[in-house]
Amino acid sequence: MQVYDAYYKRFKKTYHVQLQLESIVFKGKSIPSVAALVEAMFMAEIKNMLLTAGHDLDSLQMPVRLDVTRGDETYTQLRGQPQQVKPGDMTISDANGIMSNIIYGPDQRTQIQPATRNVLYTTYAPAGIPEESITQHMQDIEGYVRMFSPQARTELLQVFG
To answer: What is the rounded end-to-end Cα distance, in angstroms, of the chain?
Structure first.
């Protein structure tokens, strides 16, 4: 969490996975029930404290790329509000625009729905997070998904720098 705390402080923000963990541990909140694919991701996030975004793969327009924001880009957040990003934040985009970024989270356009059948999980890892931790985290998500969908297939599990 120290790596994320340092990253978020650059933007005067608090690491939201830490806040989610605190709400579960100290306030007795439960894992949100949205869609099983979201719950699998959320359980792994809480277990490993690694920030992850999930997207409906069928709603994406390839290619997908990891980039650093200039600060003039905007996208529609999950809750439907337009958001201009801060300069210097990590972001993931497809050909149609931003899908997620660290500080403001995922977009509405590519969100996982109950009917989603194909998913892209991405983990944001600022410098200092070991590659092995990311790989194990993704394997945890894969295991959680297989708990409710034993026939699920992983097409690619790779760490990109």
So the answer is: 20
